[in-house]
Amino acid sequence: MDSLEVGERRLTIDRATESDVPELVALLADDVLGAGREVSELEPYLAAFRDIDSDPHQYLAAVRDVDGSLVGTMQLTLIPGLARGGAKRLQIEAVRLASSVRGTGLGTALFAWAHDYGRQHGASLAQLTSDKTRVDALRFYEQLGYQASHEGFKRHLC
Amino acid sequence: MDSLEVGERRLTIDRATESDVPELVALLADDVLGAGREVSELEPYLAAFRDIDSDPHQYLAAVRDVDGSLVGTMQLTLIPGLARGGAKRLQIEAVRLASSVRGTGLGTALFAWAHDYGRQHGASLAQLTSDKTRVDALRFYEQLGYQASHEGFKRHLC
Fold first, then answer.
1. Is residue B28 part of a domain?
2. Using one digit for the tens of pLDDT, what is the confidence trace for B117-155?
3. In A143, B50, B101, B109, which residue has its Cα 20 to 30 A from A122's Cα atom?
4. What is the pTM of this model?
């Protein structure tokens, strides 16, 4: 378990456990885009959690306030690759902060922690995509030193 | 090993092996962006290859012509996740086709194969990013049904 100091607040980061899944899903659904994309049954999320948890290249982070409540999450994936001199990538997905902690500096602290995690695991490049309608998030990532050099394409396989 | 029929051409797709690494690196470097990003020593690529090859969620594809020459590559990563109802993602990286096979329909056939691979492994969403300067690639992905809904951010961790 790691800790984050944000102003006078002290938060913890740890790998999520199966018992965190309901809270994590609630956080994903409490979002302008997530609200229309998440489902009410828990079982698909539990199955997905087990897939994540059994893959050593995934880190699903649970960020907790001092009272133990879940206030943030992100999923880190380490992707080895040949391109760019054999660069390992840290991919960041599914970033969500509870509305109660937005604007407190937690996002910045969480990304600094994630970048350290990547470096410790040999990653030289961090990458993420953000929906073009998330205007505040796009600005946040640019402030963190990210460059919007790429188009992010998605396609359903069903 | 799978095969692809492209017009009168018959190509094969298989997992790359360590002996393919020099040809794969040459393919990555034979590219307007890759030319400035790849290095001359082979060792970093061999180390990266071993990381890829030891991770069961990676598939580094080697596409070969009937004479055995390497004419294409892409790297597939299966990423489990909680978001979107516990959707598993097929991430596609490091797509390269030799200049000798561009415009033949091989790219389209290769992506159809990749999407089938994703479906067979439970993925419901395919995702990739493409540098905004690769105008032909951006059009190609839109023709394949991809939507450029996201900004693709990158940041060096060094």
1. yes
2. 999 999 999 999 999 999 999 999 999 999 999 999 999
3. A143
4. 0.95
